[in-house]
Design brief:
- InterPro entries: HerA-like, HerA_central, P-loop_NTPase.
- Pfam families: DUF87 (PF01935).
- It catalyses: ATP + H2O = ADP + phosphate + H(+); Couples ATP hydrolysis with the unwinding of duplex DNA by translocating in the 3'-5' direction.
- Residues 155-401 form the Helicase HerA central domain.
- The chain is an alpha/beta fold and 571 residues long.
- It has three domains: 3-149, no CATH class; 166-283 and 384-570, P-loop containing nucleotide triphosphate hydrolases (Rossmann fold); 294-378.
- Helices cover 37% and strands 23% of the residues.
- The protein contains 19 helices and 19 strands.
- The chain has helices spanning 84-100, 142-149, 171-176, 189-203, 217-220, 222-227, 242-252, 263-275, 294-306, 315-331, 345-357, 365-378, 389-397, 414-434, 462-475, 495-498, 512-522, 526-530, 562-570, and strands at 3-19, 26-37, 49-53, 60-72, 106-120, 123-126, 136-140, 155-160, 166-169, 179-182, 207-212, 230-234, 279-281, 406-410, 441-445, 481-487, 503-506, 539-544, 555-558.
- A hairpin with a 2-residue loop joins β5 and β6 (123-126).
- The mean pLDDT is 89.
Length: 571
C-alpha cells in the first residue's frame, strides 16, 4: 500500500454520545485526534484517508478525516488572565513561526473517525480493531485512495475534492438499490439529477421516467430528448402548430438564466420535438372512474357481511365467498392491486350454486351482488384513441430497442400528479409481474416531499402516491424497477421510504435534524456531515451502503455542470 511521506501520531481516542434525531435513544461515535507536523507543503483535505496500527499485528484501521485545525504550542494556555502586552508579544512570535513555515512548536490536530474497514497484507476487509495510541498514522497516497474509493471501470460522475481524481461509481448497482439526492434550495439538486440521468441513458440500457412538477427537466435534458427515442408527456394540451407549441413551451418552462444566450436554440429544439411527434397529451379520466381491483372486491364482500340489512341466512354465504376469494388469490398469487378480470367468474358461479343449494330465492341480495360483479367484468371498456396511463405503461415496458427510453411527465397540478404517479406505478408493477422482464426502469421523483410526505392525507391524494412509491421501493428491485428521489428536507419524507435507499447524495442541509438522520442511517460521524455546510454549489458528499462504491466510504466530490453538457449537446 502506498502512503504519503508525511505521517502523524494518534494522540487521543474520544467517544461522543448524543440523542438520536427522534429523541428516543442515543447514538455514539468514535472520534480520533491525530497530531501531524505542520508544514506549508502539507496536503490535507476533508475526506482524506488515514491508516493507524491496531492491536492485531499487521492490521491497520482505516480512518477518514472529518476536520483539522493548526495548533501552536505558544497558544495553548494563552487566555485573558495573561496581561495584554505579554499576549501580544507571544502572538507576534507565533505569527512569525507560521510565516517561517516549519517549527517543532507547530502541528495540526486532525479529527478522524473509523469507516469500518481494516487494511491487511491481503487487502481491505470490513471490521474494527482498536488502534494503538501513540503509534504512527500514515496518509494514503492519491493512487491508494483511488483504488480504495473509486469503482474500477465505472462511470465518472465528478471529481473528488482535494484529490483531483475522477470519481467513478457502479451506476448499474446504484440504480438497483435506489438513490436519493438531498440538499437545500440552490445547492444544485436539479443539476445533479439531470447529470445522473444523462449517464444512465449513456451507460445503461435503462428506461427513465421523470415526474416533473417544476416544469424544468424538458429544458435541462432537451438535447437528450432529441438524441434518444423520447416522449414529452403533458397533462395540458400543446397547440397543433409546432411554432405555437414552441412559444407555449418557452412560456411554461423554467429556463435557467445561464442559458438566456441560447434561448433561441432551446426554442428550436422544442419545435423539433413537436415536429418529430415526440410530444403527447396525457388523458386523465374523471375522478372516481377507476377499474375495480381484487382488493375492491374483497372490501365489497366485507361490506355485505357487515351490512345490518343483509339477511342473516346470506351472511354465511358471503363469508364463504370471502374465504374462497382469499384462497383463490393465494393460490394464483394475485395481489389486492391487480385489476379484476374474468378469471374470478368461476368463483362467483360457485358462490351462486351454493346459494341455490341453500334454497335462497333468485331475488336474494347475494344473487344481485354476484350478477352485478359479473356484469361489470363482462362489459368491455370502449376503445379510446386518447393517450392514457395504461398506454403510457405499455410504452414504458416495451422491450423493443426502437421504443422510447426517456419519458418526461409534466405534471403542474400537484393533486393530479400524485394520482397519476400512483396509477402509473400500479400499472407498471402489475404488468411487469404478469410479463417479467429484466429491462431496468428508473423512476425519478423531483420534489419528492410532495409525493412521499411523512404526513399523508387522503384528501390531497398524498396518501395514494406515498403508498405507491413505498411499494415501488420495497418490492420494485426484484422486478428491475428502480427509483431516484430528490428533495430539500428529509424530515418531511416517509421514513419507510428512506430506509430503502442505499445511495445518498448530500449537499448543504442547514437543519441539524436532517444531518443527524443521515448520520444515524449510515453511521457517519456528525463532524463529517457538518462539513456539508461548507460545500459550494455543485459540491456533494456521496454516501453509499453496499451499492455504488466498492467500499462504504463517504466521498466529497464536485459534480459536472449539466448546463455545460446541455450546451455541447445543442451544438
Amino acid at each position: 500500500m502506498e502512503f504519503e511521506s508525511v505521517s502523524g501520531r494518534l494522540r487521543e481516542v474520544r467517544v461522543v454520545t448524543r440523542p438520536t434525531a427522534d429523541g428516543r435513544s442515543s447514538v455514539s461515535f468514535r472520534n480520533f485526534v491525530i497530531e501531524i507536523p505542520y508544514s506549508r507543503d502539507l496536503k490535507l483535505n476533508i475526506g482524506t484517508l488515514l491508516a493507524v496500527d491496531t492491536m492485531e499485528e499487521g492490521t491497520s484501521l482505516i480512518l477518514e478525516v472529518a476536520d483539522f485545525i493548526p495548533v501552536h504550542y505558544g497558544m495553548l494556555n494563552l487566555d485573558g488572565t495573561i496581561p495584554k502586552e505579554i499576549r501580544d508579544q507571544v502572538m507576534e512570535g507565533v505569527e512569525s513561526s507560521w510565516k517561517a513555515g516549519e517549527s517543532k512548536e507547530m502541528w495540526v490536530d486532525v479529527f478522524a473517525y473509523p469507516i469500518g474497514y481494516l487494511m491487511t497484507s491481503s487487502g481491505f476487509k470490513k471490521g474494527y480493531v482498536p488502534p494503538l495510541p501513540g503509534t504512527s498514522v500514515r496518509i494514503l497516497s492519491k493512487e491508494a485512495f483511488r483504488k480504495f474509493v473509486c469503482y474500477e471501470g465505472g462511470v465518472e460522475i465528478g471529481k473528488v475534492l482535494g484529490q483531483d481524481i475522477p470519481l467513478t461509481i457502479n451506476l448499474n448497482k446504484a440504480l438497483v438499490y435506489h438513490m436519493g439526492i438531498f440538499a437545500f434550495t440552490g445547492s444544485g439538486k436539479s443539476n445533479l439529477t439531470a447529470s445522473l440521468i444523462r449517464r444512465v441513458l449513456r451507460y445503461t440500457d435503462a428506461k427513465v421516467i421523470i415526474a416533473d412538477i417544476s416544469m424544468e427537466y424538458a429544458v435541462l435534458l432537451i438535447d437528450q430528448i432529441l438524441e434518444h427515442n423520447s416522449l414529452l408527456i403533458s397533462t395540458e394540451r400543446y397547440p397543433q402548430n409546432p411554432s405555437d407549441a414552441r412559444r407555449k413551451f418557452l412560456r411554461s418552462h423554467v429556463v435557467p438564466e445561464e442559458l438566456d444566450d441560447i434561448r433561441e436554440k432551446i426554442g428550436d429544439a422544442a419545435e423539433s420535438i413537436f415536429r418529430g411527434q415526440k410530444a403527447r397529451y396525457l388523458y386523465m379520466p374523471p375522478e372516481g372512474s377507476v377499474e375495480l381491483t381484487y382488493g375492491d372486491l374483497v372490501e365489497l364482500v366485507k361490506s355485505q357481511i357487515d351490512d345490518k340489512y343483509t339477511a342473516f341466512a346470506q351472511k354465511p354465504l358471503f363469508s364463504l365467498l370471502l374465504k374462497r376469494l382469499d384462497q383463490f388469490m393465494r393460490e394464483n398469487k394475485i395481489s389486492k392491486e391487480s385489476v379484476l378480470d374474468d378469471t374470478v367468474i368461476p368463483l362467483l358461479e360457485e358462490a351462486s350454486e351454493r346459494a341455490r343449494e341453500a334454497g335462497l330465492r333468485e331475488n336474494s341480495s347475494i344473487f344481485t351482488f354476484i350478477s352485478s360483479v359479473k356484469s361489470y367484468i363482462s362489459t368491455e371498456s370502449p376503445e379510446s384513441n386518447e393517450y392514457d396511463v395504461e398506454k403510457l405503461a405499455i410504452d414504458i415496458l416495451d422491450r423493443d430497442p426502437a421504443s422510447s427510453r426517456l419519458f418526461i411527465l409534466e405534471l403542474p397540478n400537484l393533486d393530479e400528479a400524485r394520482e397519476l404517479l400512483a396509477s402509473l406505478i400500479e400499472h407498471v408493477m402489475s404488468r411487469r409481474k404478469r410479463a417479467f422482464s429484466n429491462l431496468p426502469i428508473l423512476f425519478v421523483l423531483d420534489e419528492a416531499q410532495e409525493f412521499i410526505p411523512f404526513d399523508t392525507r387522503q384528501r390531497d391524494k398524498s396518501e395514494l402516491s406515498s403508498s405507491a412509491v413505498e411499494k415501488l421501493l420495497r418490492h420494485g428491485r426484484k422486478y428491475h424497477l428502480h427509483t431516484l428521489i430528490s428533495t430539500q428536507r428529509l424530515a418531511y419524507l416517509n421514513t419507510n421510504v428512506l430506509q430503502q435507499l442505499h445511495t445518498y447524495f448530500i449537499s448543504t442541509l442547514p437543519r441539524p435534524y436532517d444531518r443527524q438522520l443521515v448520520s444515524e442511517t449510515f453511521g457517519v460521524s456528525d463532524a463529517l456531515l457538518d462539513r456539508t455546510l461548507d460545500l459550494e454549489v455543485g459540491q456533494w458528499l456521496l454516501v453509499s451502503f453496499k451499492a455504488s462504491l466498492p467500499h462504504d466510504v463517504p466521498v466529497f466530490f464536485s459534480a459536472p455542470n449539466n448546463l455545460d453538457e446541455l450546451r455541447r449537446g445543442l451544438q
